[in-house]
């Protein structure tokens, strides 16, 4: 990445843009992956491995937030869910199966097209839309998720504000993102892209967000962040929830 590009990313990440969060180059990058997003051995294979870990975190957070029966098959029945940066629907479909009325929004039109086709083939009624989350009039939702998204947006402050604006009273926000640490630089950018575990150009380490930074952004938006949970890797466990935040982490947030 050139110095000029790095400076531009740092500037927009600080919130100096006019509220636009989509980076056209990022949207184009992920749009090119749309055709094989659902292939567990394709370019999104790492997301397929990550999804069960995210879902375990989400299920626990949902049950705790709404005091659900942990054995319930549809803990989101009667509730609405919005997944921002939904890609081709890897998280939207499980949320629908948990009973939610689901909407997915993504920056890349190719992704929402692939998502809609896959949902229809699976017999799931999910609404998909492409565009800027801060400008789409879609109302408020009980659950809002944005998994592995904030590190790709142009204006992080505007993005968090847009997520907060979509949260219904008493709702729950859940996010995940890589942490900006030496470990994530070595493994998530260097090793993962070098060895083809994720497509080259997917991550830019300077855009990773620390838990402290994310907490400040959420606080500015009137949200209280819960205790972060790490996503770690070991040869014996694979990807798993952990106290180790050095690579990746998940958080929930609620309006004050």
UniProtKB/TrEMBL annotation:
One of its GO terms (molecular function) is 2-polyprenyl-6-hydroxyphenol methylase activity. It catalyses: a 3-demethylubiquinol + S-adenosyl-L-methionine = a ubiquinol + S-adenosyl-L-homocysteine + H(+); a 3-(all-trans-polyprenyl)benzene-1,2-diol + S-adenosyl-L-methionine = a 2-methoxy-6-(all-trans-polyprenyl)phenol + S-adenosyl-L-homocysteine + H(+). Pathway: Cofactor biosynthesis; ubiquinone biosynthesis. Pfam families: Methyltransf_23 (PF13489). Keywords: Methyltransferase, S-adenosyl-L-methionine, Transferase, Ubiquinone biosynthesis. Residues 1-22 are annotated as: Disordered. It is an enzyme of class 2 (transferase). GO terms for biological process: methylation. Residues 1-19 have a biased composition (Polar residues). S-adenosyl-L-methionine binds at residues 54, 85, 106, 147. The keyword Signal does not apply. Its EC number is 2.1.1.222, 2.1.1.64. It comes from the Bacteria. Belongs to the methyltransferase superfamily. UbiG/COQ3 family. O-methyltransferase that catalyzes the 2 O-methylation steps in the ubiquinone biosynthetic pathway. This is Ubiquinone biosynthesis O-methyltransferase. It comes from Qipengyuania profundimaris. The gene is ubiG.
